[in-house]
Amino acid sequence: MSKLRNGKTFRRLRRTLTATIAGAAIGLAALPLAGRAATPGSALVMAWNIDAISTFDPAQVGEVVTNELIQNTCDSLVDFDPSDESKVVPGLAKTWDVSQDRQQITFHLNAGLTLPSGNPATAHELAWSMQRVVTLGFGNAATLTEYGFNKENVKERIVATDDNTLVMKLDKPYPTNLILQAIGANRVSGLMDMKLLMEKQVNGDLGNKYLATNTACVGPYRLAQWNAGESIVLQANDNYWGEKPKLQRILIRHVAEPGTQRLLLTQGDVDIARDLSPDDLADLDGKPGIEIKKVLKPQLFFWVFNAADPVFKDEKVRLAMRYLIDYDGLAKSVMPYLGVPRASFAQIGAIGALDEKEGQPFSLDLDKAKQLLTEAGYPNGFESNVLFGTLPHSAPIAQSIQQNAAKVGVKLNLERMANAQLFSRIRGREFKSGMLAWQTGVPDAHGNASRLVYNPDNRAEAKLTQIPAWRASFQNEDFNARVQQALLEGDPEKRNQLYFSLQKDVMEKGPMAVMFQMYNIIGASDKVKDWSWNGFRVYYSSAHK
Amino acid sequence: MVDITQTAPRAIAGTRRKLLPSWVTFAGKTLLSVCVTLLGLAALTFFIGRLLPIDPVVAILGDNSTQEAYDNMVRQLGLDKPLWYQFGVYIKGILSLDLGQALTTGKPVIDDIARVFPATLELASVAIVIGTGLGIPAGVLAAMYRNSWIDHTIRFIGLLGYSAPNFWLGLMGLVLFYAGLGWIGGPGRIDLIYEFDIQPVTGFYLLDTAMAGNWDVFRNVFSHIILPASILGFGALAYISRMTRSFMIEQLSQEYIVAARVKGLSWHRTVWGHAFRNIAVQVVTVVALSYAFLLEGAVLTETVFAWPGFGRYLTNALLAGDMNAVVGCTLLVGVIFVSLNLLCDLLYRICDPRTR
Fold first, then answer.
1. For residue A280, what pLDDT is reported?
2. Any CB–CB contact under 8 A between A437 and chain B?
3. By C-alpha distance, which of A168, A71, A75 is closest to A127?
4. Dihedral pair phi/psi, residue A340, rounded to 5°
5. B54/B148 same-domain check
6. Would the CB atoms of A253 and B188 count as touching at under 8 Å?
7. pLDDT in tens, A385-424
8. Does A225 contact B at CB distance below 8 Å?
9. I need a surface site. Which of A7, A153, B37, B318 has the fewest CB within 10 A?
């Protein structure tokens, strides 16, 4: 081979190669293809993982991103005070009256409500929109069916008596505030474009298919463009009835990778990064030009025990497990940018919730755990399983508990799986214990009391799979009665007291060891002013730059 | 140079009476094997999908739904029917290009694929152009100057392309060229500001903007694609150059090379005119395989670069237990491999006179 090598060619080639490499380097250096971008002053640009979007129909939406978008494209009948989510403030309705028996609420709508299309926007369209939620029967219908509305009665129970008046009739004297919170939070009381949706109706779907890619609501913004898996543009409605949004457009770019979101934020290509990792947040915290903003959301992360399991059916064993959780240590190591310790079923910020101290009385106490286990008949511990999903903090928390449990002779086998599989196992009662998150829809203790404590029918064939207490095969008649009593108690102070004592008892005997309440947390450029939010919603229209 | 014995079987074959022209037999056989392959693939993926312990109904309705809604959805999806029946329905759907509804996006799988695949196809095509355009010359050079500094440099670059993980290269590339030097556009296919200036015709942003004569936007699209494509192309380059080098070394040690040199042919013509023509078939196979792997979608690269492509779609579908989407995508990957194989077969017939 080498004999055949032609020296002249070799030298020529070497020259060519050197020249090419040098040329390429100079070319590249002279080729700044992209100018430094700054986000436009009239638009808010966010990087967010928006993979899960499948529809913009308020009656169907149940996922975080679209929930937030609907809240900013669809005004609801009443709204939350941005600074205190437990306070209800006027929305589409400027005032409301409640009947003596608390079973009828009459809403008086604001004048001049407008739809982007210019179609009529009166109490009649609003009543139709609310009836539509129940008629379609997606998950969100539960917000109304829980309070006695159903497909048969909804047309008589939610009615427009004139263009500006809407009447809701309830089957029981529920606390008015709770009803208002429920309809304010859960996308069931938007005023939709009835005329347009009926024109677009396919096979009696009341416009559901049209709303898979469109919005048609009274609200400050409307969906201007959606490229699935790529980006979303919300455009301010010029004819909006309320205070005009300060920013003309909200641009959302789909970015799944937290590291990439961080790059875009620090480069100034986005104003807000929504899914930063705790490590990135810790790193960016305090950097000039970047602000970390957080707010507690109504989501609890807990360890649930199957009360049908021969070991976990004993409430002393369940209590012992609570003393194996290193709340403080985990709060400092794993959770600083994720959430705060919480043991009560009622989230911080909810009406009737215990305060931060009383709502989390536990600490790591191996002796106490050992003593409880001995009393329960397990002086040498036992062996059991913990299922958990893909939430990033699940594994470190489970491992920490596993280590503590080993010290009192309890052998916990950890089993990690896809979330869909985890949900199937837990819903099917096919587990001994598991870790998962649960989010309530109202800033009131009843929201979780009705799910995490109350179980009207513990039989397997009842299949109350939407109730975590049922999934845990847990039923306590005393707790059931107290949940019902607290729900219908008219005196707010007495009602609070009922919830306080219920929370204390459930923390001792309940089927879940609640561990943390989670944050909503973002990294934002300091150019973004008046970013306003609480645990239940984000208010795009007040933000400006 | 051609082995003389190779001609004998052809002569015998030529005497056989032909019932059908050879291209008809070829097309028939190919079609049959394609259909069997795809059917097998569909069956395998479908049944594996049904065996997975992931509940598609929970994936759609979420954790919070009632049993009534759950049962309704089971009926709606036809999951209460026997498995063979579901498979029959599925195959019938495929024949009419209906791959079912994707659970995660709520849209027909075929529409989703039509949306995400062009992004991957564009990226993979630019990457394979880079990989082939640099990989083949690099491989040939390395073989020509075996054990010289050129060979060592190319081997080093190749090893780097093999061993450095793409997502790491991607992040480092972004940090350097986007965050540090500001030469290129960041993640995504295009700056958000331009995103809505594009009228998708082909779905390939470079082509669409060029056809519209919208050069500002073209420049922007190019600034976004160049880094991910280079990184993917780098991986392909590593493979292509290594393979080309070993094919070439084998050819260069053949006696016909000596004969050509003795005859007085220049080194350049000997290598490119004789040796390279003889390895063309093998190189085509290598390039086609690399291209097929790129077309499957590079999940990690697509994630790092927020590239709305096929690989990420498929991975998300897998994680969510969205079996319609998974089976649909797997079928597409199957079709890609089968078509590239076919294309290779055709190219062999062009490159290699013996196969005609």
1. 92
2. no
3. A168
4. -125, 155
5. no
6. yes
7. 999 988 889 999 999 999 999 999 999 999 998 777 888 8
8. yes
9. A7
B306 vs A37, A260, A466: nearest CB: A260
What amino acid occupies position A468?
P
User: From the CB of residue B349, how many other CB atoms can be counted at a distance below 10 Å?
Assistant: 15
**A31: contact with B, CB 8 A cutoff:** yes
Q: Using a CB–CB cutoff of 8 Å, tell me whether A17 touches chain B.
A: yes
**Are both A353 and A377 inside the same structural domain?**
yes
CA separation for the pair B31, B38 (Å, rounded): 11
Contact A383, A354 (CB under 8 A): no
CATH number of the domain that residue A370 is part of: 3.10.105.10
User: Which residues does A299 contact at the CB level (< 8 Å), separation at least 6?
Assistant: A347, A437, A438, A439, A517, A518
Contact A56, A215 (CB under 8 A): yes
Give the closest of A2, A40, A54 to B105, CB-based.
A54
Who contacts A524 (Cβ-Cβ below 8 Å, separation ≥6)? A265, A271, A272, A273, A290, A291, A292, A293, A531
What are A474-496's pLDDT values in tens digits?
Answer: 999 999 999 999 998 989 999 99
- Return the structure tokens found at B250: 């084998």
**Set of chain B residues whose Cβ sits within 8 Å of the Cβ of A227:** 195, 308
Local confidence band at A33 (pLDDT 50, 70, 90 cut-offs): low
Rounded to 5 degrees, what are φ and ψ at B131?
-65, -45
In this structure, are residues A536 and A522 in contact, taking their beta carbons and an 8 Å threshold?
A: no
Q: At which of B95, B127, B155 does a domain end?
A: B95
Whether residues A314 and A228 share a domain: the answer is no
Predicted complex: ipTM over 0.90: no
Count of the separate structural domains present in chain A? 3
Does the pLDDT of residue A1 top 60, yes or no?
no
Summarize pLDDT for A334-385 with one digit per residue, the tens: 999 999 999 999 999 999 999 999 999 999 999 999 999 999 999 999 999 9
Name the B residues in 124-143 with CB < 8 Å from any A CB: 141
Cβ contact, residue pair A267, B179, below 8 Å: yes
Q: Per residue in A441-475, pLDDT tens?
A: 899 999 999 999 999 999 988 888 889 999 999 99
Residues B126 and B60 occupy one common structural domain? no
Expressed as residue numbers, the domain containing B51 is 4-95
- How many angstroms separate the CA of residue A141 from the nearest CA in chain B? 10
Residue holding tokens 């305090």? A286
CB contact under 8 Å between A230 and B105, yes or no, is: no
* CB-based contact, A279 to chain B, within 8 Å: no
Classify strands A221-227 and A231-236 as parallel, antiparallel or unpaired: antiparallel
**In this structure, which amino acid lies at residue B262?**
V
Dihedral sign (CA B144, B150, B156, B162): negative
Q: How far is CA B41 from CA A146, A209, B35, B91, in A?
A: 47, 32, 10, 11
Spatial CA neighbour of A130 closest among A202, A67, A78: A78
- Grouping H, G, I as helix, E, B as strand and the rest as coil, residue A382 is coil
